[in-house]
Specification:
It contains two helices and two strands. By secondary structure, it is an alpha+beta fold. It has a two-stranded antiparallel ribbon with strand order 1-2.
């Protein structure tokens, strides 16, 4: 989770090869990484929830979120998809999303 393996085929052939990038190198320009501990100290899955909680608290305080946050309309759209999946499974047939209200 803390590393990105990257291959750049646009480099000259003698320089091509896999590179491993440590993605926890925080800087002031990244919306989240700059708030965490020093470079190369890995982050875990749970830290994404801390970032989400911070965004929610900032929104409650009247500030703009760092990333787009879902609203009730988004939740309703997701519930429609889940209902279509449930009906499709129960009936063993496709369900048009337009049939789900």
């Amino acid at each position: 989770m803390n590393e990105l393996d990257w291959y750049d085929a646009t480099l000259p052939e003698e320089l091509q090869g896999w590179s491993t990038i440590n993605v926890t190198n925080g800087n002031a320009n990244h919306p989240y990484a700059g708030a965490w501990w020093p470079v190369a100290h890995v982050l875990g899955y749970e830290h994404s929830f801390i970032n989400q909680a911070a965004d929610i608290m900032n929104m409650i305080a009247g500030n703009d979120p760092v990333v787009p946050m879902p609203d009730f309309a988004d939740a309703y759209a997701v519930q429609r998809v889940l209902e279509a999946v449930t009906q499709s499974d129960a009936n063993r047939s496709p369900v048009m999303l337009s049939d789900i209200t």
